[in-house]
Amino acid sequence: MIAKPLAVFLATLVLSLNAYAAQPAEKNYAEHCASCHGADRLGGSGPALLPENLERLRRPEAFKTIAEGRPASQMAGFADKLAKEEIQALADLVYQPLPKTPVWGADEIITSHTLHEFNPLPNRPVFTADPLNLFIVVETGDHHATLLDGDKFEPIHRFQTRYALHGGPKFSPDGRFVYFASRDGWVSKYDIYNLKTVAEVRAGINTRNVAVSGDGKTVLVGNYLPHSLVLLNAEDLSLIKVIPTADASGKSSRVSAVYQAEPRGSFVAALKDVKEVWEIAYAKADFPVRRIAVENYLDDFFFDQSYRHLIGAARDGKKGQVIDLDSGTKVAEIELPGMPHLGSGITWEWQGKPVMATPNIKDAVVSVIDMNTWKTVKQIKTLGPGFFMRSHENTPYAWTDGFATMSPQSRDVMHIIDKNTLEVVQTLRPIPGKIAAHTEFTRDGKYALVSIWEKDGALVIYDAATFKEIKRLPMNKPSGKYNVFNKITRSAGTSH
Ligand code: HEC
Fold first, then answer.
1. Residue 234 and residue 109: Cα distance in Å, rounded?
2. What domains does the chain contain, in order, with CATH numbers?
3. What strands, in cross-sheet order, belong to the sheet with 266-271?
4. What is the C-alpha to C-alpha distance for residues 206 and 52, in angstroms, rounded to an integer?
5. Atom 36 (ligand 1): residue with closest C-alpha?
6. DSSP state of 17
7. 48 CA from centroid of ligand 1 (Å)
8. Ligand 1 centroid to residue 47 C-alpha, Å
9. Rounded CA gap, 437 and 458, in Å?
10. Going by CA atoms, what residue is nearest to atom 40 of ligand 1?
């Protein structure tokens, strides 16, 4: 047996020898990684490697990626070139903030702008399916999207997207074009009729989502990095202007999400780090910003169907706030104890009055709230906290998942709630053990499409009246699906 002090000495010696042999992470990065991920880590042919962008990548996963690479991608493994400690040091490096806040302003945006099509393409689909009953299915497993015929449930076309799309894609008001935003700030305009990406621009370094104005003329981008909103021409994605996001005192803020409020002719922006909500009139010259002061940090919104009221949830608080957008004042507080996911809220008529319902990310309940009194009508118990909730004008049911906490008891279920009795009437397990998420209905509300959110996942299509499965399509982590008609008509059963 070796004496303890000797063992400590030997261990220290081994460590220092390793440290001597190993190159510093910065040097390894420049040598092995910069060609694809950018000398400044802002990205290139590979994704940006910044702590903001890697929020969803767990650290052991980053280590594994660098050591083993990623299948079917340019990312090769480095286990044969670099020592374990060097790989660990690189994995630590990518979670370090850059020494200087990177600049991404008008110059960088304009330089990144790319037009893929210069001449107008024909304004009719190259396929025969109903252009208003199409779905865009985002498959984040391998960064593709599938255009799906919503009558036959057959894929029409599958195409590559930018790396890691973020926030739902948004359609032009006529349903011909769809706009995607990626985690790393790329905005792409895709022509559904011609199956082509027509324009792209990098509007930020770390982006949350896009909104398209009700008149179809303007796209608004909300960024975490830099702290900015970016207005683009919807026609060709050329830059209109960059609006730095700071409150009246100059304190700057990330943008959590942007929305379009067509009945008001405006965009609304949720700011994460300051107590303001912004409304931007998109039809007025110069896009004036109206600041609405609020009592708390509100970063997840729901709107009533008229867009008069904004319901905001604070990530730290237990109460939702109802803001009257006309007067710019708080008119009520809502009891929302379980951390609601308001962005996924829906509305319907219940006993002659409008109600809204939202799943909760922490508590296993769906909150149903009377929108006249803003009082809770019911907390519907579910097997686990849910993330998405969906319905349609033509169905008496609302569907909600239970995967928000990834609990093995509930991540594979889909609850079906009767919108009249407010009871769970059916609990489906589309594929036992596999994550079930995000329902979306066909244009007529007759079928419900559920995602199996796995790399070897699927879309499972149900008859929305009998809950019988009618078809299964293999998909690579289908994180969401978006029906053209339901989105452009702002169906009360889906987020807009
Ligand atoms: C030949 C180009 C290339 C080189 C060289 C390269 N990468 Fe990558 N890397 C990629 C691509 C492409 C991806 C995205 C893979 C995918 O589709 O999942 C990626 C993904 C990653 C990810 C995961 C990012 C995320 O968002 O999940 C990390 C971390 C990473 N690379 C680190 C490194 C490090 C560290 C090095 C140097 C030791 C390196 N890469 C070298 C192209 C490259």
1. 15
2. 4-93 (1.10.760.10), 341-496 (2.130.10.10)
3. 255-261, 266-271, 276-281, 289-293
4. 7
5. 33
6. H
7. 9
8. 7
9. 11
10. 33
CB atoms inside a 10 Å sphere around CB 265:
17
Measured in Å, residue 405 CA sits from the centre of ligand 1 at 28
Ordered per-residue pLDDT tens for the chain, 496 residues: 445 555 555 555 444 444 445 789 999 999 999 999 999 999 999 999 999 999 999 999 999 999 999 998 999 999 999 999 999 999 999 999 998 889 999 999 999 999 999 899 999 999 999 999 999 999 999 999 999 999 999 999 999 999 999 999 999 999 999 999 999 999 999 999 999 999 999 999 999 999 999 999 999 999 999 999 999 999 999 999 999 999 989 999 999 999 999 999 999 999 999 999 999 999 999 999 999 999 999 988 999 989 999 999 877 767 889 999 999 999 999 988 888 989 889 999 999 999 999 999 999 999 999 999 999 999 999 999 999 999 999 999 999 999 999 999 999 999 999 999 999 999 999 999 999 999 999 999 999 999 999 999 999 999 999 999 999 999 999 999 999 999 999 998 887 7
Ligand 1 binding pocket, CB closer than 6 Å: 32-33, 35-37, 45-47, 49, 54, 57, 62, 65-66, 70, 73-75, 78, 90, 94
CA distance 455 to 312: 33
Pocket mutation for ligand 1, best pick of 53, 75, 142, 166 (most atoms within 8 Å of C-beta): 75
Those residues with Cβ within 8 angstroms of residue 238's Cβ, 6 or more apart along the chain or in another chain: 110, 113, 201, 232
Atom 5, ligand 1: residue with shortest CA distance: 33
pTM: predicted TM-score of the whole model, two decimal places = 0.93
| C-alpha of residue 55 to centroid of ligand 1, in Å | 15
Ligand 1, atom 43: closest residue by C-alpha: 75
Distance 86 CA to ligand 1 centre (A): 15
